[in-house]
Amino acid sequence: MLKRTKLLAASLLACTVCLASASARDLVIVSNGGTFQEAQSNAIFKPFTAKTGIKVVEDTWDNGIGVIRTKVEGGDSGWDIVNAESEELEIACQEGLILPLDIDKLGGKDNYVPGAVHKCGIGAAIYNHVLAYDKTRVSAVPTWADFFDLKKYPGKRALRASPKTNLEFALIADGVPLADVYKVLSTPEGVDRAFAKLDTIKSSLVFWTAGGQPMQLLASGEVVMTSSFNGRVTNAINKEHKPFGIVWDKSLQTADSWVILKTSPNVDKAYELLKFAGEAEPQSHLPDVQPIGITSAKAVGMIKPELLADLPTAPDNNKDVLQINDAFWIDNIDTLTARWAEWSAQ
Amino acid sequence: MLKGQRGGMLRSYALIAPMFVFLLATFLWPVSMILWRSVSDPELRAALPATAVELSSWSGQGLPPASAYAALASDLVKVDGASLASLSRRLSYENPGFRALLQSTKRKLEAAPAGTTPDLVALDPQWGANQTWQAMKRAAGPVGVFHILSALDLRQNYETGIGPSRPGAALYRSIILRTFAIASTTAILALVLAFPLCAFLARQSDRVRNLLLLMVLLPFWTSILVRTTAWLALLQDRGVINTLLMDMGLIDQPMKLLYNRIGVITALVHVMLPFMIFPLLAAMRSIDPRLFRAALSLGATPFYAFRRVYLPQVMPGVMAGALMVFVVTLGFYVTPMLVGGPGDQMISYYIALYTTGTLNWGLASSLGLILLVITLSLYAIQNALLRRSGVGLR
Hints:
heterodimer, A: alpha/beta, D-Maltodextrin-Binding Protein, domain 2, 2 domains, 9-stranded mixed β-sheet, 42% helix, disordered N terminus, B: mainly alpha, MetI-like fold, 3 domains, two-stranded antiparallel sheet, 19 helices, 72% helix
C-alpha cells in the first residue's frame, strides 16, 4: 500500500513538472548535428543568446518530411525552428506544416543572396553539386561536355545513383543553356534527350550513393571525374592535400533553409533569431570550420579571401550556376526514378 | 489450491508480458502499419470528397456522368492548398502533369463569375479524356490496390482490365527476381564453402576447433560496413587483387570485380558465411561417427554411406543454415549498395529509396509486403517439405 502511494506521488510530481515545462518553454532550434551544427551554434546561437538573453535549446534531426508531419500532427511537440532541406521546405510549405515568412521582418529580400529566400523559409546554408576531377589525369579544367566525352578523357566517371542532378548535367553537357534546363526537362523529348546523352557514357559510369564515396572513388583512381557535394571536395583538397580540382561553373545549387513550424508557441522569438541569423556579422563566422555557403549578401565581403574562395556564395563561384528546381522534382521524382532504375539496371 | 494455481498462472503471464509487449511494439504493429499503408489511398477522398463518391459509383468506362463534373468543380473551389498538394503528389505517381492540371483548373474556376459552373472540358481538354478520370478513380480510395499493383508493374484499367503500368514495364518484378537470385546464389555458395570446413572442424579436438572458430567469429563480430569497405579495397581496379595479378603478369587489364554481380556475391558470401557455419557445425557434431563406420563395415561404398547415412543426419543443419543465409540476405541493403552496380541493387534498396528519398510510402510498403509474403510462403514450403521427409528444424 505504501509503495502504491509513493508511486502515485511520484507520478503526480512528474506530471506537474511536465505541465510546467509545457506552459512556457525555451526556443528550440533543430539542425543536422556534427560540425555543421557546431559551426551554426558558435556563429549564431551562442552570440544570439549573449546579445538578447533569449535562451536557445539545440536539438538535432536527420531530415525527412515524415518527421515534420509527425511533429506538427498533434500540436506543439517542442520544436520551433528547423534546418530543412529544399524539398522538405517545398512540401512542408505546400502542406501548410510551416509558417509563411514575412521577409521584411528578416531584413528584407536584398539582405540575402539570390536563391536563399523562399515563401516559407530563409536560407541557412547553400551548397552545390559540382564536378570534381583528378588533376593528375585530367590536364585542363573540364566542363560537363568533357565529362561526357570519353575520347578526350578516357576513364570511368562517377555520378550519384539518382535521376536528380544527373538529368540536368546531361542536358547541360548537350548544350542546353542553364536557363532552359528545366523547360527542356519538362517535356518527354527533353527527358529522352537527357537519357540519350547519359547512354553515351553508360559503359564508363560508376554510381555513388553516400556523400563520402565520390572522393574515395577519385582517391583510389577508380574514376577520373565525378559529381560531388562541394564541401567534400574542398575538404579533400585542403585537409587531405589530394590533387583534385573543383569546377564551380555550371554546377547545381541548392539550399538548406530555416523554417518555423506552424505549431511553434515562440514565433516572435523565432523571428528574432532568424533575423539575427541573417545578419552579416554572425554569418561571416559560419565558414570558419566548414565551407558552408553563407546566405547573407553583405557577409560575403567580410570573409577572409582564402576561406571565401571555397564557398558556393563567393562571387567567382556563384556566377554561372543553376538552382535545383524542387517543384519540378517533387512532381516528377516518381516517374523519373522508375525510368532511371530501369535505365541504369540494363 | 485452485487460487494458488491461478496466482501461478497470472505470474507466468506477467513474466511473458514484457516479451509480448515488445513483440507487439517492434514487430506486429509495424507490420500491420505496412499492410495498411500498402492499401490505404486517402488523398483524393480528403481533398475532393464529393468527387470521390461520384468516382466510386462510376464504371470507369467512357466519361463520368455530369454529376461527377459538377462535384469536381465544387470540390476544387473548396479544397485548401495543403490537401490539393497531397493529392497532386499522389496523382503524380501516375502522371506528373496532374499538379498543373488541378491548379490551373482551380484558378480558372475561381475566376469564373459567381453562380455559373464553367464547362471543365472547355477549361482544359484533359477533362474530356477517359485516362484522366481513370487515374482519379484509381486514387478514389479510401482503400485500393493501386500501390500493390504498381509494385508488380501492373495497373488496373477499367476499360481493358489489368495490364502493364507502362508499356513493357517489368522493373519491380525484375528487382524481386534479382533479389531472390542473389539470395539463393549466396546461400548455395555459402553452403559449398561451409560444408567441407564444418566436416573438418567437427573432427578436431575442442581446443583446435575453438581456436579455428575464433577465426570465423572475429570477422563476424566486425561491423558489416567495415567488412564491405574492406572488399572495396581488395576488389577495385587499382585494388589489392588486380594489382597483384597485374604485377605477376597474369592479366594486362584490371578485371572488373567491383560494381557488378561478382563483387556483390563475393562480399555477401563472406558476410553470411558464419550464419551457415554454426548450424551446420552443430548438426555435424551431433552425429555419431560410428554410424558411418557401421555402414562401411556392412558393405556400403563410401559414397553410398555418405548419401544414405551421413547426409540425412546433417540435412536439418544444412536446411537451417541455408534458410538463415537466404532470408537474411533477402533484406540486405548496405553491401549491394556499396559494392554493386545499379543492376545489382536488391529490393531493400528500393524500399529505402521510396521511404526516405521520394516519399512514396504506398509503393515502399507494397514492395515490403510482397517481400514478406514471398518469404513466408518459401518458409512454409520448406517446413512442409521437412515435415514430410521426417526431420524437423531443431
